[in-house]
Structure formats: structure tokens, C-alpha cells
Design goal:
By secondary structure, this protein is α/β, with parallel strands linked by helices. Helix content is 37%, strand content 16%. Strand 7 and strand 8 form a beta hairpin. One of its GO terms (molecular function) is phosphatase activity.
Length: 243
């Protein structure tokens, strides 16, 4: 019993991370949040021909959410992952009365305002939410809604996984449920993984991009700071590029 207690109290071994080693050079872009202007500017700064992965959260809070979705849908050369804001939008479409208030208070209000839908709040109920959903679906169109629904959750390259929000550090990345990859895990930012995998992600706002302890954190709060950040991850190292 004493041995078991000492085992539990003993600090976890320090994680040792090899350098990020992708299969080939690629770029990862952090949360866009309706800043299509920043996205276009950042793409122009990236090296020609380098594959690009966006980590999700293309909508809400910024001024051009639906335009950003349309732009990305028309760029099959860019791999787009699903973020929690896309997840909230889809939930609102399916269940506007139940899911609408949560989305509205987390940036959906700005997205709907872009479409001319105003006078809503997180306390809105009933007919107004259904009407807002109908306007949103009409403006997006079935093809764009389906594109958002089908967004993948993860991309792999070498010893790097790209997700939106993070992963449970105690569980193999591939075994994390979709909710964790989209919404995050309470231990992700504080507990290094022990398996040597690097995770490139957004979701959690940082002042500047961070490459440390197996995490490549790229959400620099573009909607508020005007700074959208990418990491160009090459076999020889990582270059951070921002607007």
C-alpha cells in the first residue's frame, strides 16, 4: 500500500520531445474568425507550393464569416479542419431554439448581423431563432452547409498532429473523441504528452505563437489583435509568419 501511494506521489517523468519532423514541409494557420482580409494577406506571405492546413474557427466575432467559408470552400488546395465555432453553427442549424443562445453569446451574433439578422440576444427564443436559422441556411446554401458538416478533425504529418483545440495528453491522439479535438481538454495546455507527438492547434488564444513541450499554439486572437499566425513546419525547423 505504501509503495502504491509513493508511486502516485512521484512526479511524472519529464517528457522528451524530438524536434517536429513532418513528412514534408507544410503550413498551419491559426483561428481566422471572420478576418478574411488577414487570411488572404497571410496566404500571400507563405512559400509557394507549400500545402496549407487551417485549424478551424473560420467564423464568428470578425466581420466576414460567411465570406471566409466561401473563400475556403473554393480553395481545395487548403485543408480545413472543423473548429468549435463551426460545431456551434451546425448545432444551431439543427436545433435553433436549444442551441442558438450558446452560439449567439460566443460570436454567432456577429455572424448573423453580417447577414442582416439583428435584434437577437442570448435570451432570444422561439420564432426569432428559427427565422434566423432559416436566413442563415438560405444565405449559406446547401453546398456550403454540407462542406462545413464534412470538415475533418485531424491531419497527420510525421510526428505532428494538427487539430483544432488539443487532445487529452493521457490518451493516444487517435483515440480522442471528436468533442475533445474540437473543444479541447482541461490538461492539454498544462500537461506535456509522454508519447513524443507534437500537436499543432488553435482555440486557446496566446499573445504570440508558442512552440514548446509538444505544442504548436497558433491562435493569436486575429479578430481582436489583427494578427493571424501561421507556422511553416519543415524537416529542418519551424518558421512563424504573422500578418
Amino acid at each position: 500500500m505504501l509503495k502504491s501511494l509513493l508511486t502516485r506521489l512521484r512526479p511524472a517523468p519529464t517528457a522528451v520531445f524530438e524536434d517536429p519532423r513532418p513528412d514534408a514541409t507544410f503550413a498551419v494557420i491559426g483561428d481566422v474568425h471572420g478576418r478574411l482580409d488577414l487570411l488572404e494577406g497571410l496566404l500571400a506571405k507563405l512559400p509557394d507550393g507549400v500545402p496549407v492546413v487551417c485549424v478551424g474557427d473560420y467564423i464568428d466575432r470578425g466581420p466576414q464569416s460567411i465570406e471566409t467559408l466561401r473563400f475556403l470552400k473554393d480553395r481545395p488546395d487548403i485543408t480545413c479542419l472543423k473548429g468549435n465555432h463551426e460545431d456551434m453553427l451546425l448545432s444551431f442549424i439543427k436545433e435553433p431554439e436549444e442551441k442558438g443562445p450558446r452560439w449567439i453569446r460566443n460570436g454567432g451574433l456577429q455572424t448573423l448581423a453580417d447577414l442582416g439578422v439583428r435584434g437577437l440576444s442570448e435570451m432570444t427564443r422561439g420564432m426569432k431563432l428559427r427565422e434566423a436559422r432559416n436566413t442563415l441556411v438560405k444565405e449559406m446554401g446547401e453546398d456550403l452547409v454540407k462542406w462545413v458538416e464534412d470538415l475533418p478533425l485531424i491531419r497527420w504529418s510525421g510526428n505532428i498532429a494538427v487539430v483544432h483545440a488539443g487532445a487529452d495528453p493521457a490518451v493516444p491522439i487517435e483515440d480522442n473523441p471528436p468533442k475533445t479535438l474540437i473543444w479541447g481538454h482541461r490538461d492539454f495546455m498544462t500537461t506535456p504528452r509522454q508519447d513524443g507527438w507534437w500537436v499543432a492547434h488553435g482555440h486557446t488564444i496566446v499573445d504570440e505563437a508558442i512552440v514548446s513541450e509538444g505544442r504548436i499554439s497558433l491562435d493569436t486572437g486575429a479578430f481582436a489583435t489583427g494578427r493571424l499566425t501561421a507556422a511553416v513546419i519543415a524537416p529542418e525547423g519551424i518558421e512563424l509568419i504573422a500578418t
